[in-house]
Amino acid sequence: MALVKKHPDSSSASASTPDSRANNAAATREAEAQRKRARTLAKQQQAAERIASATAQLASGINEAASAAEELKRSSDQIASGAEQAS
To answer: Which conformational region is residue 47 in: left (phi greater than 0), alpha (psi within -120 to 50 degrees), or beta?
Structure first.
């Protein structure tokens, strides 16, 4: 088999055919779309985590308020009982 020297232009001309450029563009668009979907999912996940955290904090605050209200009721009952005994 004989060695044949190819021109540098001939190898690059075959690599940059319109079909290969279209495939590269399509692959680039698809990769960008996948990155966009990944960013969107990451943002949704972060928002869900923040909402869950805020919900947990709100529930904790509601429980504290309920406990405080119950304690206030017991104190009021004791004060009423003491006032009744004093009269």
So the answer is: alpha
Q: How far apart are CA 47 and CA 52, in angstroms?
A: 9
d(CA 48, CA 55): 10
Chain centroid to Cα 60, Å, comes to 23
Regarding pTM above 0.85, the answer is no
Q: What is the DSSP letter of 6?
A: P
Instruction: Give, for all 87 residues of the chain, the pLDDT tens digit.
Output: 566 677 666 555 445 677 888 889 889 999 999 999 999 999 999 999 999 999 999 999 999 999 999 999 999 999 999 999 998
Residue type for position 59: A
